[in-house]
Design a protein that fits this description.
By secondary structure, the protein is mainly alpha-helical. It is built from five helices and no strands. Helix 3 crosses helix 4. It starts with 42 loop residues before the first helix and ends in an 11-residue tail after the last helix.
């Protein structure tokens, strides 16, 4: 999904329909103009400023808790990145910046997946992995030749 531009300083703006396009027309990336950016809160919440601000604070706090849990899961067992992107999706229900970050991330992941399926890239990755594996096996062999295998429970008292 393309957010429109990779140029710094440019901001995506929702169309007001004055360009002669109907709201049902879709862009090349499949997203409708104006749809997808902004708050997804129910209309009765958006109609009252204090209620909408408290709604946004609640969404931010819940998203922050989920992102923090994902960050904790990065070094620990658990689906850290999935949880972090889940928190970003929660934020994206209310905040345009999170929606743009998610669109950019989806686009980059899709591009990386397409590059990974390219036969030349796959061949290069297999060659590099094989070379790395040969280097690791050689290092382990040199270590074992020099020091041998000594189990920790068989070390003599010094």
């Amino acid at each position: 999904m393309n957010t429109g531009s990779d140029e710094p300083g440019e901001v995506a703006v929702a169309s007001d329909g004055a360009g002669g396009e109907t709201p049902d027309e879709t862009r090349a990336d499949g997203a409708r103009d104006g749809q997808g950016l902004g708050s997804k809160a129910p209309e009765f919440i958006k109609a009252r400023r204090a209620l909408h601000v408290s709604w946004q604070v609640g969404v931010f706090v819940i998203g922050l808790a989920v992102v923090a849990a994902g960050i904790v899961m990065l070094p620990l067992p658990g689906p850290g990145w999935v949880v972090i992107f889940g928190g970003m999706a929660i934020w994206a229900t209310e905040f345009v910046w999170a929606q743009l970050v998610l669109r950019w991330t989806k686009r980059k992941v899709t591009e990386a997946a397409q590059r990974a399926l390219d036969p030349a890239v796959r061949r290069r990755n297999i060659i590099l992995t094989s070379i790395g594996l040969v280097i690791v096996i050689a290092l382990v062999a040199v270590y074992l030749w020099k020091f041998g295998v000594v189990m920790p429970w068989k070390i003599k008292d010094q």
